[in-house]
Write a structure and sequence with these properties.
The protein has 114 residues and is mainly β. It has no helices and 11 strands. It has strands spanning 3-7, 10-12, 18-25, 33-39, 46-51, 57-58, 67-72, 77-82, 91-99, 101-104, 108-112.
């Protein structure tokens, strides 16, 4: 059973930064593709970052240049560094593990507001 636990969300002013962390237990972390999704009220879930086992990262245009995903295989942890945050980044952010099957964490709330 793969379990994911996110942390690091909170309230931040526009232009600020947050770093999310996700610890993964179970599974084979080093072989998995990891990612972060977000879902805002009334909107569809969207992928905001992914990173393969080789470290190749991908981002949608909406966050490219502002968000950075990274992984630490020794700690079974994936990170999302978010800079220059905007009010439209407000959402619940969930980390995702993919190796055969997909698993998500419960999510952490990020609110960008003055």
């Amino acid at each position: 059973q793969v379990q994911l636990a996110e942390s690091g969300g909170g309230l931040v002013e526009p232009g600020g930064s947050l770093r999310l962390s996700c610890v993964v237990s179970g599974g084979i972390f080093s072989l998995a593709t990891l990612g972060w999704d977000r879902q805002a009220p009334g909107k569809q879930r969207e992928l905001v970052a992914s990173i393969t086992l080789s470290g190749s990262a991908n981002y949608p245009d909406s966050v490219k240049g502002r968000f950075t995903i990274s992984r630490d295989n020794a700690k079974n942890t994936v990170y999302l560094q978010m800079n220059s945050l905007k009010p439209e980044d407000t959402a619940v952010y969930s980390c995702k593990y993919t190796f055969g099957s997909q698993y998500w964490g419960r999510g952490t709330q990020v609110t960008v507001s003055s």
